[in-house]
Amino acid sequence: MASILRKSSLVLAELAAKSSPRVLATAGQRRNLNVQEHVSYSFLNEAGIPTPKFGVATSGQEAEKIAKDLNTKNLVLKAQVLAGGRGKGTFKNGLKGGVRVVFSPKEAQAIGGKMINQLLVTKQTGAAGRICNSVMVAERKFPRREFYFAVMMERAFNGPVLIASSQGGVNIEEVAAENPDAIVYEPIDIKAGLQKNQALAIAKKVGLEDHAEETAKMLLNMYD
């Protein structure tokens, strides 16, 4: 269960760092509240939600040091660029992928050094790309299942809504487009906030009834 929820928290961090207009089904005003993924991880940790251990590097040498400190051979390097589709993106120096799995500090140094201060082109950046000023070096996790949880402002509900799915992971936008019934929406009273009975209901709807209390606690912490 811990690995399941930890992967869910990783997905939460991804989603806290960007909004998904396809899931929200809106194309309205941009609030410019995007933050880098590593900042989202820190927010989650402060709320008592576990994430993989990580560090932020601004050079290949720093990436190597962080990798050594993490003391694992299973690592992920993530370009800190405010754009979706990083994993399938390409740097203008020819390096493929803004999310890369590495297996040693030396490899972290080599790959990280090729990401930092380079332009990453993804489906959301346009041909110009966006500069990668830093790389997040994180533990690589091996989830048994992936879930999606997010709190977003939704005009259709005139306020915040908790969105959840048992088909989580990096392709949640595709789930929304191809199998919308797999996504659960729970409107939240903006004055009362998310209630425990709502969080428990969401946990059960996505198939976590055996771990409903633990999941509900995470959701309540996420909202608060």
Automatic annotation (TrEMBL):
One term under GO cellular component: succinate-CoA ligase complex
Record-annotated ATP-grasp domain positions: 41-87
GO BP, sorted A to Z: succinyl-CoA metabolic process; tricarboxylic acid cycle
Top-level taxon of origin: Eukaryota
Pfam families reported for this sequence: ATP-grasp_2
Protein name: Succinyl-CoA ligase [ADP-forming] subunit beta, mitochondrial
PROSITE patterns membership: ATP_GRASP
Annotated source species: Culex pipiens
InterPro entries per record: ATP-grasp, ATP-grasp_succ-CoA_synth-type, ATP_grasp_subdomain_1
GO molecular function, one term: succinate-CoA ligase (ADP-forming) activity
Keywords: ATP-binding, Ligase, Nucleotide-binding, Tricarboxylic acid cycle
